[in-house]
């Protein structure tokens, strides 16, 4: 499958952070290898590898779902989708996007208070290594769900495709929302943190870098692709894809002379 690069501010953020997270499994393999060597060759097992791998794996899981949404590789019942006309496919797309949006909104609405409390008191895992998994992963879940819902709408706008003014208006609104949320989070984190704030300074700096990077990517994507017409995604089933591949291979085959095909090869003039 060819990777879909996307276009616009939201796709820029999703694609960039997803590409960064693609290196996380390699890091998990390295630290587990380190644990195996230390445990069985030096009898000095670590206290941090298991929790660190769980911590990073949670982020990989969340970013993988967002990347799958960007690539349009989520599950779809093609046996029904491919049989209906185009207008009904658009209805299905609208309903699926609506369901994703409702799920994301309901989860964020119901989990915001808990995530906020875990973050500000910097809740840890309660083990010997004691990483702040609840304090970081719970807000990350809600953040990814927000981007997931926005990404679903972005796909809908670009895949139909919508009119240019609809796409541009959506990109501007998304950019304003992301920049506004990032600015609000930075203001609450650095300017007026609540009472009982226990977030370490190094984590505040790291989160600030993350927020600043998201804002830069959004602005860059908006400027770069504002007048760019996105290429609609044309999906075809596996059989049609195999037919296209075979047809391309046949087209590249060299032409065989009629004499050989009829079983009468040309005579040697010598």
List its traits.
270 residues, 70% helix, mainly alpha
Structure, explained:
The protein has helices spanning 9-21, 24-41, 49-70, 78-81, 86-120, 133-159, 164-191, 201-225, 238-251, 258-261. The chain is mainly α.
Structural class by SSE content: mainly alpha
Q: Tally of extended strands?
A: 0
Oligomer: single chain
Strand count, sense and barrel status of the largest sheet are: none
How many structural units, i.e. domains? 1
Cα radius of gyration in angstroms: 26 Å
* SSE series: HHHHHHHHHH
Proportion of strand residues: under 5%
Distance between the termini: 53 Å
How much helix, percentage-wise, in residues? over 70%
Give the topology.
Elements: H1 9-21, H2 24-41, H3 49-70, H4 78-81, H5 86-120, H6 133-159, H7 164-191, H8 201-225, H9 238-251, H10 258-261
TL;DR of this structure?
By secondary structure, the chain is an all-alpha fold. It has ten helices and no strands.
């Amino acid at each position: 499958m060819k990777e879909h690069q996307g276009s616009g501010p939201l796709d820029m953020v999703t694609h960039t952070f997803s590409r960064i997270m693609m290196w996380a499994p390699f890091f998990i393999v390295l630290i587990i290898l380190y644990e195996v060597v230390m445990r069985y060759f030096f009898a000095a097992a670590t206290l941090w590898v298991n929790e660190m791998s769980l911590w990073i794996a949670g982020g990989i899981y969340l970013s993988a779902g967002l990347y799958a949404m960007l690539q349009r590789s989520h599950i779809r019942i093609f046996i029904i989708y491919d049989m209906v006309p185009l207008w009904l496919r658009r209805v299905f797309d609208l309903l699926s996007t609506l369901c994703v949006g409702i799920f994301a909104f309901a989860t964020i609405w119901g989990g915001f208070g808990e995530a906020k409390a875990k973050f500000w008191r910097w809740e840890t895992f309660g083990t010997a290594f004691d990483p702040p998994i609840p304090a970081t992963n719970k807000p990350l879940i809600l953040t990814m769900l927000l981007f997931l819902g926005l990404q679903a709408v972005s796909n809908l706008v670009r895949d139909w495709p919508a009119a240019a003014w609809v796409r541009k208006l959506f990109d501007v609104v998304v950019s304003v929302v992301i920049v506004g949320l990032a600015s609000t989070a930075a203001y609450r984190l650095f300017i007026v943190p609540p009472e009982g704030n226990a977030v370490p300074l190094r984590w505040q700096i790291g989160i600030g870098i993350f927020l600043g990077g998201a804002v830069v990517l959004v602005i860059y994507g908006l400027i770069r692709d504002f007048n760019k017409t996105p290429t609609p995604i044309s999906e075809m089933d596996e059989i049609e894809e195999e037919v296209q591949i075979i047809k391309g291979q046949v087209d590249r085959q060299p032409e065989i002379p009629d004499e050989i095909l009829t079983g009468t090869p040309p005579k040697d003039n010598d």
